[in-house]
Amino acid sequence: MIQFKRLTIALLALVSISATAWAQETVETTLWEGTCTDGVEINSTTVSEFNAGDVLRVYVTIPDGGANFKIVYKGESNSWTETTIPSVDNQWPWINDGDTYMDVTFTEADITALTGMGIYIYKGEQSTITKVTLITPAPEPAAGEVTINDDKDEASFTMPQNDVTVNYTLKRDMTVDMAVTVQDAQQNSRFRVQKQGNNFVPVGLNMQQVLALFNVHDDIENTDLTLQQDYYGLIFSLDDDDQPTGDGVLLANFNFAPGRYAVRAIGQEGSNYVGTTEQSNVFTLYQGYPVDVAAQSFATYYSDDEALTLEDSFAETAGLYTVASVTATEAVLSEKIDVMPKRTPMLIYNESETAQQILLIPTADVAPLANVADEFKGTAVEKEVTAEEVAATNFYVLTDQNQFVWVKDAGTIAAHRCWLEIAPSEAAGARRIVFSGSGTTGIDAATLRDITTGDWYDLNGRKINMPTKKGVYIFNGKKVVIK
Length: 483
Prior knowledge:
Layout: E1 2-5, H1 6-9, E2 12-15, E3 27-36, E4 39-42, E5 55-61, E6 67-74, E7 80-81, E8 94-95, E9 101-105, H2 108-114, E10 118-123, E11 128-136, E12 145-148, E13 154-158, E14 169-173, E15 178-182, E16 188-196, E17 199-202, H3 207-211, E18 214-218, E19 223-224, E20 231-238, E21 244-250, E22 259-267, E23 273-274, E24 282-286, E25 289-293, E26 298-301, E27 308-310, E28 318-321, E29 323-326, E30 331-333, E31 339-340, E32 346-350, E33 356-362, E34 376-379, E35 383-385, H4 387-392, E36 394-398, E37 403-407, E38 411-413, E39 417-422, E40 432-434, E41 456-457, E42 463-464, E43 471-475, E44 478-482
Parallel strand pairs: 14-23, 16-24
Antiparallel strand pairs: 1-13, 2-14, 3-11, 4-10, 5-9, 5-11, 6-7, 6-8, 6-10, 12-13, 15-18, 16-17, 18-19, 20-21, 20-22, 22-24, 25-33, 26-32, 27-31, 27-33, 28-32, 29-30, 34-39, 35-38, 36-37, 36-39, 37-40, 41-42, 41-43, 43-44
């Protein structure tokens, strides 16, 4: 008796099938074959070897008009006796003109009466016996029995005995109503990692905690699957369209490199599950936010989402600041800030004598409110500065020479960058604000088409930093005059 829930039947995979014949076919066995004009003695076969329902078939050639023949039996005295049997009744069966054989079907009474006797077939006049066979018909298959329980949520049945023989395993199909999620199924869960040798390791999570982030839930059975026992996971790196790349890697082989990933759960061999789930929600591994800063120079950064601090390895060689106040002639730095609150424009200072890629990391540490000048602003996304905005106020952007440079034309400020906005009435003409300790100097303005990125060249084709002297230069393929 096999029982399974009706709702689950359509979701089970039938695997490892090994079937015999569906229903045994009728078998015809030759007992004698040749040309006999007198009669046929079948000494090697006794009636006791037959079963009720078996057919003795006598093939003959007959003259026009038909012919008859007679079957007699050889008893224990080893002499032929015309024994009366129920199916033949000691008569001469008749073969009509055009027939090629005559059948005598054994009944249960025949088998009982004639056990142990041999067979001899007399032929009729003018006929010739050519072959005698025994036909064993196929048994009738047992009828299948199906019962439905009163609550109508289960069914059971018994396989007909002679219908089929199979070896099978019923497995839950993981492609149907089963999902794998990472953490709390947010569309983009994020986890910070840090470099360790040639690999990365999760920050603040041991391997057991990492494994606990993955969940595979069966919505039909309303149960969670067990990693390794029921399934294994493959982690796929994603392209810009969130499509998986490569063949995926097992968690044990994953190097936790920064990037965007998703997981698929696959039925473990030997478990009750088969198939592969759909792709999980996207999760991101990040080391932090790297910012390239020249030696003993400033760079700006802005985050809308989270408070930031320096990664521990930069504690002695870098510092975080903001602009505390702005006058007509100078921008004044704040004191060094350990934790920069979110939505606070900041300056990162590289105190070392070599360029560094300084790493900012999110932190849950309490970030005290910073005293930030109203004129110091930032953006987490790319910002277009229109000609109307340029006409209405003065924009100053930071160069790699620790200088906030006034820009006169419309342009684009890159994401996560900061700038100064000073009303024309407060500006002391065209100027450049330079950090140098606590002092500043003022000089004429520069004109930029793209106010955050680009390459400068002198008229001899040599690449240079932002110009600091009057003259004609090439910027992003265009001639620019610095006055």
